[in-house]
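Suppose you are handed a protein chain with no further information: no name, no annotation, nothing but its sequence. What can you learn? This example shows the usual starting point.
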Amino acid sequence: MLHIVRRLSMVAIVALCIVIFAFAKAQQQARPAGQAAAAAQAAKDTCWGKTPCPEDHRPPVAFREDWTDATPGVPTDYKDKDLDAHLQNKNLTMVRYGAGAKDVIYDRHVGPRDDPGYIWLGACAAGPCVITLKDKADYLDLSNPMSKVVWRTKQGGFRQLRLVLKLADGSFLISDRYAGPAEDWNISEILISDVHWRILKIQEPVRIYEDSLVEKPNLTKVDEIGFTDLMVGGPGFTSGTSRVDWIEVHADRVKRSSATNNNN
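A reasonable first move is to predict its three-dimensional structure. Written in structure tokens, the prediction is:
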């Protein structure tokens, strides 16, 4: 009798194991394939202790502006206050702030022979000025840690060309990072996550100055992006002045609402 009981117990244990295995298998098969794939991707999407890995999620080039020459290939001195006429990207507009900003020009020279056409802040004689670019259709989202600005600039004297942001709420920010003095054209970049921002006060017509630090500003909706050196322009070729040949913004886009577009 005891032998029979033991055999029945063994059978019961085997049957229970089979049931448990079948249940586990069914649960595994019931898990969505996408969930398993997502878990596998999440395991890979890690670097330097950061998840997700920022370097694996670089934003695209939202726009690059390299102002067009009215007479390409023709060696001539050229100066023009109509900055919008030289925009390559017709989805952009240029906005000016400060009493001197109305005099900012697109400039090009016969010599040096390889000198490009550029935006020249030396014409800001009436006071410091700010020049920004605004996309008509989209805001810029600069919250991605890999968002950055790459530009080709040339600063004379002690000029430090800084980034300026106008946010969707109308406030302005100015960066502590800058493109500094250079004897020749210089390509540099500013990683947005490296920047400490200050409030920029623009009190028309003349007063433009940096104010208090802003901790962790919301950069998900940037209305305009541009530059300033916070100084009155130097009038000559060798005097203190800032020049911008081209600018490239790496950022995600956020569609403006129809109401926003109608108001701009």
